[in-house]
Design a protein that fits this description.
This protein is of the alpha/beta class. The chain has 2 domains: 138 residues, UDP N-Acetylglucosamine Acyltransferase, domain 1 (3 Solenoid); 52 residues, Udp N-acetylglucosamine O-acyltransferase, C-terminal domain (Udp N-acetylglucosamine O-acyltransferase, Domain 2). The protein is 17% helix and 26% strand. Strand 26 and strand 27 form a beta hairpin. It is elongated, with a radius of gyration of 20 Å. Involved in the biosynthesis of lipid A, a phosphorylated glycolipid that anchors the lipopolysaccharide to the outer membrane of the cell. Pfam families: Acetyltransf_11, Hexapep. It catalyses: a (3R)-hydroxyacyl-[ACP] + UDP-N-acetyl-alpha-D-glucosamine = a UDP-3-O-[(3R)-3-hydroxyacyl]-N-acetyl-alpha-D-glucosamine + holo-[ACP].
């Protein structure tokens, strides 16, 4: 049985799962679906075609699913999909997709969005990501899994960030960051591998293979795409292959200083 405060406003048509807790003055619109065991704190607003999975915690004054901040938006049916076990902290703003971007913004599982985080339209976020306070993702940004974004960091539209990458706080990112890498600065550039994150996830020999590949790619005078192509055909490491495949597909380019 759900626990819904008497002051909450829930439109007819909203689907509320089992054991959901809804606090005072929460507003939930008709197209919303909320999964089991989710907690929604006071004054949160959930609107639009928004689907929220189970075991999430949405903190007070979050605004989830309000229309995209895109002047081309003209009332089309678009949606926001949120997975399971996410923590969405105070004053976050999450927008749905747009017709031009696939019509959906999607957040995976086990993510932490700290206070004042903004996710623009058509953003795609994987699993186990951490976005610190004030991180701002423009439209069409894509994050892989286990990505960490430091506080007060804006990310340009259409940027892609690979698995286990980390962006330092107070950076400004306008290009793609490959998996396993660390970037920071304004404008942010690669500073090396995200060794702290990698040591939690990979074996020492796997990290050493990435170190060798990183030096070949970003610390040699050779052309980046040529080196990536060579590593793709010669390396047996699945992580190195993932790294060079990301580079090959990058549309915004990789920000690094050629040695």
């Amino acid at each position: 049985m759900s626990n819904i405060h008497s002051s909450a406003v829930i439109d007819d048509g909203a689907e509320i799962g089992a054991n959901v807790k809804i606090g005072p003055f929460v507003t939930i619109s008709a197209q919303t679906i909320i999964g089991d065991n989710t907690v929604i704190d006071a004054h949160a607003v959930i609107t639009g075609k928004t689907t929220i999975g189970k075991d999430n915690h949405i903190f007070s004054h979050a605004v989830i699913g309000s229309i995209p901040q895109d002047l081309k938006f003209n009332g089309e049916e678009v949606e926001l999909i949120i997975g399971d076990n996410n923590k969405i902290r105070e004053f976050t703003l999450l927008n749905p997709g747009t017709i031009g971007g696939g019509s959906v913004t999607k957040i995976g599982n086990n993510n932490l969005l700290m206070g004042y985080v903004h996710l623009g339209h058509d953003v795609i976020i994987g699993n186990n990501c951490i976005l610190a306070n004030g991180a701002t993702l423009a439209g069409h940004v894509e994050l892989g899994n286990h990505v960490v974004i430091g506080g007060l960091t804006p990310i340009h539209q259409f940027v892609h960030i690979g698995d286990y990458a980390m962006i330092g706080g107070a950076s400004a990112l306008s290009q793609d960051i490959p998996p396993y890498c660390l970037a920071e600065g304004n404008r942010a550039i690669l500073r090396g591998l995200n060794l702290t994150g990698l040591r939690r996830a990979l074996q020492r020999d796997e990290i050493n293979e990435l170190k060798i590949a990183y030096k070949e790619l970003f610390e040699s005078p050779k052309a980046l795409q040529e080196t990536a192509k060579n590593l793709q055909s010669t390396s047996s490491s699945e992580h190195v292959k993932k790294l060079v495949e990301f580079i090959a597909k990058s549309k915004r380019g990789i920000p690094y200083i050629r040695k």
